[in-house]
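[Amino acid chain]
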Amino acid sequence: SFPPVILGRLVDSMLSKTASPSLSGASNYLLLLIGAVLVREALQVLRKYLVENAITQVEKKTLVEVIARMLRVDLNFFGPDMKIGALHGRMHRSIEGLVRMLKLSFLDFFPAAVTALCALIVVSTKNPLLAVAMGSVIPFAFIIVLAQLSTQKGIRIDLLRAKEEIDGRAVELFGGIESVRAANTESLETEKLEQAAEHLRSKEIRHHVCMAFYDSLKYLNEGAFLIIVLCLSIYLAGRGVISIGDILTYSLLFGKIGRASC
């Protein structure tokens, strides 16, 4: 949250000078800005290393534990109806989903939430009214997310199961390719596989279209509140409550809150 504050002070400093703005007059703010950016990026690198190191450890441990458990499971589990390809696909995608969730949480969601909270704290110490206006974007975004989750309940599981079905069918086909060739059923098996793939594709298209719709709602919500924040900032600046530079500061800080709400 420091770079937006520094930029706002820089703008105020340039506007308050009677002479034309110069680099020498802005040098202190520019040095502060460079320092803030360097510290931020150094912390980003450290955070990514720590998170990636922890997540790869979790991925390795989970993979080993799952395979070790499967080696000890009752042999009746591997019945004639069990498709090894589907089982392998389920294991792989479950671990992949866990890793993706951890990365989204610790590399995207939590940092964005902390940054948004810091931005709200900075704004609330300077102008509580603007802090309320900025924070109001969050409950509306939360409502959109709840609607998104309710309409897409179970769809990801259905997609995973459909992919497992294709994995299992493909592995079984390649494993029994001699029987397929002997029975001359290549065209029939290809048609069955194409039907399963088309079923998966149609489900994915519906899912992605729905996700695109809700993503648009989130960005429209963010854009609407950005206009509100800008209008309120301009109004307060016109009345002398805040400075011109604060308009830039508040718009940049709102951008951090908006990214967290999306």
